[in-house]
């Protein structure tokens, strides 16, 4: 069954290209099978409310691209030849499987304003303290001297100081501004780390289901990827899995998207591996500000392994995602090396944005907003937990102890597909489970349900609609 | 003669490390010779006004790093072994010399607030329309819906439309928003182009003296670099220099830093090469908004070669440099490919910045500011031209017909070094000529004098001080 959502207006792709792109996406993601017949152009045109010629154009484009084939009188079908060959699974010395991610197709991201987003890790913006944000920006503009030159490559000194004084102590980290590099987000931080480490290291380990886009940036620059299972104690790996000089990517406080916390025993093993094997740890602490039951434990960056840990923090959740501002905490020589690279790649991070956030930190605006949102998110979590337990008693989950999403075990892959198809039909934007496992590995029976950005009442109605459709 | 400027306060490196770093930089840039004696720790400490132990620490650090060597009673000297080996100059089929740039050391950038910047390509910020900038931002914050989600990977649809409607027509370019990608600056744009083109292309051509940092990003991702001379008609190359599928990086309107315009004949040859040899042209149109004598000619992107031209524009000069916002105009499939890559590398460009600039474009704020600054800069250019002709009659130059810097031929490399040393001593920050030529090629007799950011009166006094010091 094709799922096509069209968007109109200036700035959109032509309709026929939108149709072709979305069909192609679904084929490449295995949502439409090889060899399957596409609906007749007449039927699809009627369903989408477009001219038949538009669908014909889309089909022609798919045929020209070699994705589909068409024969007069027999309609258009998806070609049988699998487009994506399975890359062979290599093995290396440790016997650990090595895979690469770059054959997973990336797609440009469009936003459909008619959809309700249940994507994970997206912050609420309805409660943003707009007046204070505005006043902070006014202060920045009135003191224009810092706009004069480029920003320093490592970041605005005022912001780096504020991060050391106001943010890191919350995570148990004592750091000097020389240890802080401001970046336009964690994802870009991974590029800087990969490029600076590629000389000496070639393997990166991480847990799945997990956040794979960091690993993807390492794969892009030549690293081999090693995925490990995740259970209730976080990423499950033993020291023997780790080679000398390997990199380990972890989210110790809230492993995404399951929101499990690294157990003390595993934490100790990682600290040990840093000391014994020159393991480099990337600690992605993307949302530990939002905890609902207990204060988070200190970061790994606050442990004995400190010098071997690169810490990544972000303002995407404490302010809003499209801000694009984050920071790295690392040893000063590495900060300098990454700062230089950042300067060469993109001339540093926006100075005006940095100074704005520094003003907001200085005025306590971000701290107050974070406290408030902790309460708002906790209430959403509790209400959605109650609704899910009542309306979907067969779905298994632990209420997340932090973060902005539920991780739901739906019991079977078939049921998960059904629920996702219903969400699509109802214009609920949900993340595909295949995003979180290597190379679209089998079908997944879980669903990640983000509750950060949509209003509680909207989420509740949406879930009730999903239930109705399931029983229809 | 060592040139050391220390900075103090929170966020600075320790003093001994600042000293060591700056000495090392000067050694690596050939400003302090191999084998040279460093001043005694006592003398340098007195000169810098720091404790002697601090200088001793710095010297120890340099020795530990293998840059210097020290013998009791004989002081510390720079090691004789050249640190940077000359890479062999390779040749390829066309007989064109191939060099690589990555062995040129990059340095993180620090800002010394006590210095007066005469760096090129830096916009004035004293005349920014602060009230309108603030009102524009207020409007953005009051309409928060667009902050809700990530930005689209290709950029804010409103900003892309405004660029098509308000900016590109000034350059003769008709484009649809699908052809526009918003990026955090031109430098990062080069990364996106290099990574998307690396599959099919491997050579990039450019003119020197010129802006080499774009080429440097291509070298980083495996491209071979081909430099060509620049004369009064712009980059000097013939079609036979270009291989099939090569890339040519040009600044047709104002080649930086000389501010020469590409001649009609060479322009025609480039258009021809696009059509005949699948040449890909990168047109960096970084400051053509600032013209003083005649309107600029239409962009190459407005020529018959349009499809083979990737156009780069920026808000660094029409607003301010530390904004970090620019745009690419290219064919829609390439825009989509680069947008996807941009999303993967860094999750797109800051949404709030994009919407802010869109509001400023929509309100005509940027257009009005640009018109005003054209007048301000023209006046600065005229006054500095008069002063230079009067006070430095032996320096040869054409008054720049646009842009934010003078390109001065000082007659001999020795004289240029002398002037640069005087600027340093007087805390005038000037760009080193070696920035603009390949691999620090010989000494250069030119000086690039930026007049964008410093006030006219400051520049005039500074130049008179330089003259006094020259005759002292």
Provide the fold topology.
The structure is a homodimer of 472-residue chains.
Chain A: H1 15-28, H2 41-48, H3 52-64, E1 68-71, E2 75-78, E3 90-91, E4 97-98, E5 116-117, H4 130-142, H5 157-167, E6 180-183, H6 186-197, E7 203-208, H7 213-220, E8 224-231, E9 234-235, E10 247-250, H8 264-277, E11 280-284, E12 309-314, E13 326-329, H9 332-346, H10 351-362, H11 365-391, E14 405-409, H12 413-425, E15 428-429, E16 446-450, H13 456-471
Parallel strand pairs in A: 5-15, 7-8, 7-10, 10-11, 11-12
Antiparallel strand pairs in A: 1-2, 3-4, 6-13, 8-9, 12-13, 14-16
Helix pairs in contact in A: 1-3, 2-3, 4-10, 5-10, 6-7, 6-9, 11-13
Describe this structure in words.
2 copies of one chain form a homodimer. Chain A has 472 residues and is of the alpha/beta class. In chain A, 37% of the residues lie in helices and 14% in strands. Chain A contains 13 helices and 16 strands. In chain A, the strands form 5 sheets. An 8-stranded mixed sheet of chain A has the order 6-13-12-11-10-7-8-9, with helices on both faces. A two-stranded antiparallel ribbon of chain A has the order 1-2. In chain A, strand 3 (90-91) and strand 4 (97-98) form a beta hairpin. In chain A, helix 6 (186-197) packs parallel to helix 7 (213-220). The longest helix of chain A is centred in the C-terminal third of the chain and has 27 residues, at 365-391. The first copy, chain A, starts with 14 loop residues before the first helix and ends with a helix. At the A-B interface, helix 4, helix 5, helix 6, helix 7 and helix 9 of A face helix 4, helix 5, helix 6, helix 7 and helix 9 of B.
